[in-house]
Amino acid sequence: MQADDIIDRQRLRRKVTFWRIAAILIAAIGVIWAASYYTNDDETSGFAYDHIAKVKIDGTIFEDEELLERLEKIEDDDFVKGVILSIDSPGGTTVGGEAIFEAVRKIAEKKPVVAQVGTLAASAGYMIASATDQIVARKSSIVGSIGVIFQYPNFEGLLDNLGVDMRSIKSSPMKAEPNFYGDTPPEAEAMIERMIVDSYDWFKGIVTERRGFEPEKTAQLADGSVFTGRQALENGLIDQLGGEDVARDWLIEQGVDQDLDTKLWKKKPERNNFLLPNAAMAWFMKQVGLESLSLPIAEQFGKRLALDGMLSIWHVQSAEKN
């Protein structure tokens, strides 16, 4: 009986230990969850006092509904006295660039807006920068790449190697062209070229209007070339060299109070289907020094894989051609 009592006590002790550990983990999760709501206040949008709003536009550009809503709130917020767009983007979809361009122009009609270029403002990134009334870039920033591109793969060779024969029945010759599974007919290539030319003319018209160029000068600069900040200043693609301090100085020249703080307007992280909200996980990863891994893999790479349609994007391609 004494031995049985000892075994029962050991079992009870293990159960108590398990539940203690579980309680500690639950409490820790609760603390992290709460921290996601009460930390980093300077990274959430909405401030009930006069300030300069800063908005980051980085990475590949899409028609981002959340960003458009945030820009609309900035437009209507009387506490926002000026806006700094911090741009670091290679571009993205033409539709995404167009939507953000129009949102920025609406803000600029009510309050001064300046673009501050970091490493890169190319293609649709430069389109958005041109929506502001002043563009500031670093001397070594990359600016330009004015143009439009439509890319599509051809899997015919791969499918032949796999022994796959793709067939289709279409209502008309141009339906679903290019189809990725064979050679593109000349009529389809001509159709795509017409779309590209039309969007390209529209993009050049934006640059001509916003930068005050003659059409001939725009055509000269809009050959897809990229420029350093110094070259861009010389060619009139930007207005000043410098960083955020120069952008702030321009806002002050427009009548913005020099004592106002600059506040970052950033979307509040949304909850997902996991136990922890995104903000809590990001906070925890930051504390343990793994901040760069806090974003899900799908979020880091999914957007680039989802690019579709006509693009205004800058990237370096290999010189090797098959």
UniProtKB/TrEMBL annotation:
Gene: sppA
Natural source organism: Ahrensia kielensis
Domain of life of the source: Bacteria
Keywords: Hydrolase, Membrane, Protease, Serine protease, Transmembrane, Transmembrane helix
Transmembrane segments: 18-38
Name by which UniProt lists this protein: Signal peptide peptidase SppA
Protein family membership: Belongs to the peptidase S49 family.
Domain Peptidase S49 intervals: 108-252
